[in-house]
Amino acid sequence: MPFYEVSVVTRSLSKADLVKALTRAGNTLLDNGAVIEKVESLGHRDLPYKRLAKQTHEPVYASNFFLFKAHMSREARQKTKSILTHDLDTVQVDLIQVDTTPAPKIECNLEEILKSPAERQAVKDLRDNQKMGHFTRQMIYKRTEKEWKSIPKSYPIAPPRP
What does the alpha-carbon distance between residue 9 and residue 89 come to, in Å, rounded to a whole number? Predict the structure, then answer.
């Protein structure tokens, strides 16, 4: 069964009504075959934009945020989302599938990073494998040609005769 994060945003409710709404949400998940791993309260926050309550059509500016972490099938996900979305105490419900594959292990290369750039293997590889464009090659050729011409040339002196 895939792992989902179920975020539930409720209206601003009293503690007793909030407990009832969360119990309803949890029971809905359990009734549809979900295995709840964790429930987190993300607190009472302002909403990013005005929402309307379902039954009274009153504006909702702040609400309670909760996060259920649960394993459930894809069919249960669809059923649960439709039930929780139509609940009058919820403002918004989202179910997001979370990838549970372990992240690749990162190797620490602090000793390599602390070396001066001239001594690092990565910098040496960059210098060896660097690509130069036509203009850069031409500029290097002209500079070396100019340096070569600026060196004074002398005629070779013949060796002494025996």
Answer: 9
